[in-house]
């Protein structure tokens, strides 16, 4: 009898988490018992809501006896009292799962409508409404000031802002972010990033100053580079004017002072 409540709680909670992109994009943060508790929490929420709905229906429609109809047509124990209990639990179980599907469908409609306006705001980035829908929801799950938030800003920027990508191997790229991987059950967002390189080089192992060796033509298509964020040490915005004025500026100033003296 208890299984008639436990199984629907887990099923409806699973539907709420997996089919709702806001919770799905945050799923990689939870593991083990915490994940089970989260599923059980949302499943209990569905069961609670369906119970409230059942009470309201009975209050406003006192002559509506769906429970009696189920108990009479599906006799399990032969005992009227027990059959009513089984009918009640079965009804709550089915309606809680149905409620979870209705809930995520309403959320999907809301996200699709908002995603449409989001795609209009970022026409240069998203060709499909579903892409914009997912990006809008993903942004809500990111913390301000994080690398993930910065990468999404770079992807959606108009005009495109270049970023400086520093790899753990001391290889550096200046590029335009062109694509980001979506999160899933195990991987965080932006596990892989795609970018169009503008310049590349390395950091001097002694001074850590940037040394650029290659400039890439912007007319070449399909020059995107895909790297794993595990290979990236840090990322920052890049401004060419600021770089020319700041890079090795201390050494240059010291040389000027030496000559003047």
What does this protein structure show overall?
The chain is an alpha+beta fold and 261 residues long. It folds into two domains: 3-120, no CATH class; 144-249, SH3 type barrels (Roll). 54% of the residues lie in helices and 16% in strands. It has helices at 3-19, 21-24, 33-60, 66-73, 80-121, 129-141, 147-156, 240-246, 249-260, and strands at 163-167, 171-180, 192-203, 210-215, 225-228, 232-237. Strands 1, 2, 3, 4, 5 and 6 form a six-stranded antiparallel sheet that branches.
Topology:
Elements lengths: L2 H17 L1 H4 L8 H28 L5 H8 L6 H42 L7 H13 L5 H10 L6 E5 L3 E10 L11 E12 L6 E6 L9 E4 L3 E6 L2 H7 L2 H12 L1
Antiparallel strand pairs: 1-2, 1-6, 2-3, 3-4, 3-5
Helix pairs in contact: 1-3, 1-5, 3-5, 4-5, 5-6
List the uncertain runs: none
- Whole-number count of domains: 2
The geometry reads as elongated
- Along the chain, the helix and strand elements come as HHHHHHHEEEEEEHH
Strand content: 15-25%
Provide the structure class: alpha+beta
Spatial gap, N to C terminus: 93 Å
How would you sum up the major sheet?
6 strands, antiparallel
């Amino acid at each position: 009898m208890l299984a008639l409540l436990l199984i629907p709680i887990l099923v409806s909670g699973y539907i709420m988490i997996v089919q709702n992109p806001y919770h799905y994009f945050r799923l990689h943060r939870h593991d083990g018992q915490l994940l089970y508790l989260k599923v059980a929490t949302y499943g209990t929420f569905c069961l609670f809501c369906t119970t409230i709905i059942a009470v309201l229906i009975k209050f406003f429609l006192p002559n509506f006896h769906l429970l009696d109809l189920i108990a009479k047509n599906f006799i399990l124990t032969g005992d009227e009292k027990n059959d009513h209990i089984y009918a009640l639990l079965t009804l709550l179980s089915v309606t809680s799962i149905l409620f979870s599907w209705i809930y995520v469908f309403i959320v999907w409609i809301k996200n699709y409508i908002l995603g449409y306006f989001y795609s209009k705001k970022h026409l240069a980035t998203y060709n499909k409404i579903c892409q914009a829908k997912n990006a809008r929801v993903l942004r809500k799950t990111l913390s301000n000031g994080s690398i993930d938030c910065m990468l999404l800003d770079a992807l959606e920027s108009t005009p495109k802002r270049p970023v400086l990508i520093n790899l753990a191997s001391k290889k550096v790229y200046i590029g335009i972010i062109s694509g980001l991987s979506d999160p899933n059950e195990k991987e965080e967002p932006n596990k892989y990033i795609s970018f169009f390189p503008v310049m590349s080089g390395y950091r001097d192992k002694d001074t850590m100053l940037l040394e650029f060796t290659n400039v890439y033509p912007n007319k070449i298509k399909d020059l995107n580079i895909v790297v794993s964020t595990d290979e990236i040490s840090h990322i920052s915005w890049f401004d060419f004017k600021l770089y020319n004025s700041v890079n090795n500026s201390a050494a240059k100033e010291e040389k000027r002072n030496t000559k003047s003296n």
